[in-house]
User: Fold this.
Amino acid sequence: MSSVYATRFWTENYNWKTPTHIKYPKTPAYYLLRDGCVFQPNKAATHFYGAEITFAELYQKVTRFSNALVELGVKKGDRVGLLLPNCPQFIISYWAVLMCGGIIVNLNPIYTADELRFLFEDSGLSTLITYDAVVPKIKPLCKDLNVQRVIVTSLAEFMANGTPSTPEQLGLEEGWLHFSKLLETDRRWAPPRVDIKYDDPAVIQYTGGTTGKPKGAVLTQYNITAAVMACVNWCKEMVDRETPDQKNILAVIPFFHVYGEVCCIGYSAFAGMTLVILPRFDVDEVIDTLKKWDIWAYWPAVPTMLQGIFYSPRVDEIDWHAKLIYTGSGAAPASLELYEKCRDYDFNFYEGYGMSETTATGMSTPGGRPKPHSVGVPYIDMEVRIVDENGNDVPLGQPGEIWMRGPMVMKEYWNNPEETKKVFTEDGWLKSGDVAYMDEDGYVFIVDRTKDMIIAGGYNIYPREVDEVLVKHPSVADAITVGVPDDYRGETVKAFVKLKPGASATADELIAWCRESLAAYKVPRMIEFRDELPRTDTGKALRRILREEELAKRKQ
Assistant:
């Protein structure tokens, strides 16, 4: 590669404490937790509704549970599903599976039985760790697919004054196992004797399925180690300046998502920070939780969470600049309005870009110096190119597809060599499928997904550009634009809009609004108002669902 991208000129904009390269150890990923425990054994690793577990206690529980899994027959390479919300049991299970050489399959608890069936079958999981609230949903599935081991817990058991549930309360079937009982029965402190290689698969992280069936990104032990170490070093100024009591992370982003996996579970373990865990996002609960601690180091968030806070009448109850050292937005792009709100409330805000396939890393704002609409500069040790349809580098400022290569990039797609071949070049570059451009400072600006591009009358239209114009309207809370079939233009532009509470607007008014900022061919021809718009749990627009609905209408 001989171009401006090869020089990695963007490192000139790194924070003064951020290294340009890290020598990552080729060790099992659970060493991240082990090293964190040595650093601050008596500091709380988790806080969950009044109950705390210190790092020393956490490591003890992890080794016990890992040994228990081995005793139950879990072998190196076996797939173990984690069907849990954010809770201490998720963290214990996560590190325990890695410690015994198993492969974690992260699963979303709100998925339907049919959605879970595909993931169960595709991954070939033989063990499931779950909780009582979803037992009625997964019982028939586990029986039908003959899942060998099902381990069940209850969230209340790990809260303050929690007591172990009875088998009846957990809904245990014959042969199913009690999470807390397993922790009590195995007393070994040393990790099980398993030969774990740095390039062994560690996690199957399924993509969000925004363009079809989810694909399982295989993340290795080395991928996890590199991503966490890069993340902590990216925020080194923040970590170094905090006192131990300030090292708290608000953990409300889902752990089953790669963002929560790296920026909550991994980050807190390696940096010796307390995870204050919330199972789901609720605006009032988040504000109440933030008020209980003097200072927070970090809140990994997504735009919808931050917007929920800003729209709350309680937003002024907190001095955000004094209370929150850093907050970040990942997984979905932040709007200009969100940037302006963060500035108004004096948030230390940064934005990032990553994928399941890159272990959540890719780009991030350096040193809290954001540029509106930019996802920042390439991460430590991440090579990035912007290329045209022939794989040739494009000049700075010109849109093209993002290609990435580095120690955080996945090994392959699970059981899917065809898709693996499609996304990798022969020399190891991962094709992201996202269109972006890079400016003269190395900041990357996402334009859109290549698969979401609308081609209307021969013109290429990026729907995100239309979305951004619509959400600037004072009455619009959210917008998702798609291409719908059109006999004359091939495709035409349709926008789905969610209004702010109590606000009003007409389709004609919004179309006129778009005409002020967009070329005529980009302006929506149709506007449909909805109470809710389809997004993933991390805020990504599910345009595919809206397109499929429109196609179904035409067939009627």
